[in-house]
Please model this.
Amino acid sequence: MKLHAPALTLPQLSVACPSCGAAAGRLCTSRGGIQILRTDVHQPRGAAWAAVQAERAKARAVHVDPAAAREALAKLPPDTIEHGTTRGYSQHRVRGVPSCQPCRDAINAQAKARAAAREGASPAQQRWNRGRVGTPTAPAPVPTGRDCTVEGCGELASTPKPSARMVRVAWPGSREPGRWYCPGPCRAYGLALAEVRAIGGPDA
Model:
């Protein structure tokens, strides 16, 4: 069975935890190792990771012999910032790490490209959508309602409740029967479907 632990994606896992002794890449634990922290890490671990990032930034900024700089950087834990990209620039800001020159170059290039694209737009076009131009990024697909992979999501409410977290969705006068849905996007999907099928009344 796959462990559901959002904390596995946290960059702080690249260093060991001074609080509970969890090794790099391992989740933090509490209560003497009995309980696993699935969604977060201990504060000392976050501080240790931030210190490592600060050291990496200093090592990049200091003008020393290239071979010595590479050797110093190699001794530090793996870097998880996507340097040279606009995403990397955002990661610098969110994590409180001084941005490197490649990331600054990437964000500046993006700003220049947007400014150049706006030059050919009319004033009305520039006012629309706060001046943003170009092809919008397609949103990531999110399974909802009948496309949801969670067992029992979308089942008729006349059946027993599939799980404790399911919510019943029904709309007065709708041709769509009441159903059980997961909370969040699935519930919103079911509510919208029921509202749409209530237009014109139950006999329409």
User: Anything to note?
Assistant: The helical segments are 43-61, 66-74, 86-95, 101-119, 123-127, 185-196. The mean pLDDT is 80. Residues 171 and 191 are 7 Å apart (CA to CA).
